[in-house]
C-alpha cells in the first residue's frame, strides 16, 4: 500500500477499538452455556466488558484484536485501522511475511501483542498472497494459557482450510531463533516507485470500499472473509486445477423439512431456503458469510441439522447443500414434517385441540345448565304440590273444626233433655 494512501486511510478512518454487533452475539440465541470468550481473552476484560456482548468503556482498549479472533459468532468486528494494518501486509515487497509477538527478540515484518490476535481468516488471506513465517519462539515461555489455546485453535482451523499440503508449502512455524531468518528484499529505485504506485492504486480501492458510507453493516462484519473469498476467486480463475478449501457448513439430515427456523436464526444472512420450479426446496449457504457459529444448529428443534461438517470447496460463493420436498399444513400452509399426524402443524394441532376442548366444555356447560333448570323446575313443582297439599289439609282441618263446633250445642241440649227423663223414669210409683 502506498505511503499517501496509508496516511489518507489513517486520517479518514482512525478508529481505536473494535465494534460489537449485539444482535449477532451467541448469547442472544438458544444455547446451554453462555459464551465469555471475548471477556476471558481480553487483557482488560473486566474494565471493558460488563457482559460479553455489552461494552462498558473502550478507553482501556489497545486494539490488539484478541477479542475479534476469539469471537465465535463474528459479532465483534475489527476496527478499520486493524483491517488496514492486517491487509496491508499482503502488499509488501517481500515474498515472505514474518509475524511475531512483542516478546520476540527477532526482527519480524509485523509485531502484535500476541500471534493469536491474527484470526485464521487473516492468516489464510495472507498465506494465499505471501508465504508466512510464524515466530513461535516466545510461546514456550508464555504463561497465558487462554492465548495459547486460542492460537492452537486458529492454527488448527488454518490447516483445515488450506489442507496439510498447502499449509506446509505456504506457512512455516518457527520454534527456534535460527529457523526461517528474516530477509529484506532490496529493490532498485525504479522497482520501488513501481511498487509504490501499484500499492497506492490498491490501497485507494480498499479505502473506497472501507469508507463507512459505502459498505453495509453485514459486509463490515466479514472484512477478512470477504477478502479471502475474493482472493480464492482470483486463484481459481488463474489456475487450471482449482484448489480446495475446508469450510464448516451445517450438516442437514433427512429430518429437515424446510421449516425455515435456521434461516431466521442466521443473523449473518449466510443461509437461505429457495423454492425451485420442480416443487422442491434447496438450502443455499454462502460460506464466506458463514461464521461457523452453529446458531442454526441450536435453532433447529427437529434434529434436521446434525452439527457443522467440514466440506472441501473450490469457491467460497453460494453453494447448495441440501434439497427436500415440502409438506404444507392443511390449516395454515406452513411446512410440516411428512409424517405429521392429521396433516397439520403442531400449532394448528394445539388450536384444534383447544377448540375441541372449548366446544366440549361449552356442551358440558349447556348440559349442566339444563340439569340445573330441570332440577329447579322439579323443586318448584314439588314446592307447589306441597303448598296445595298444605292448603287442602288446612281446608279439611278447618271444616272438621267447624263441624265439631256445630255439633257441640246439639249434644249439650240433648244432654239437658235426657236428664229429666231419666229422673222421671227413676221415681217410684204412688199407690
UniProtKB/TrEMBL annotation:
Residues 355-395 form a coiled coil. PROSITE patterns: 4FE4S_FER_2 (PS51379). Pfam families: Fer4_7. Keywords: Coiled coil. Residues 52-81, 245-276, 281-311 form the 4Fe-4S ferredoxin-type domain. This is 4Fe-4S ferredoxin-type domain-containing protein.
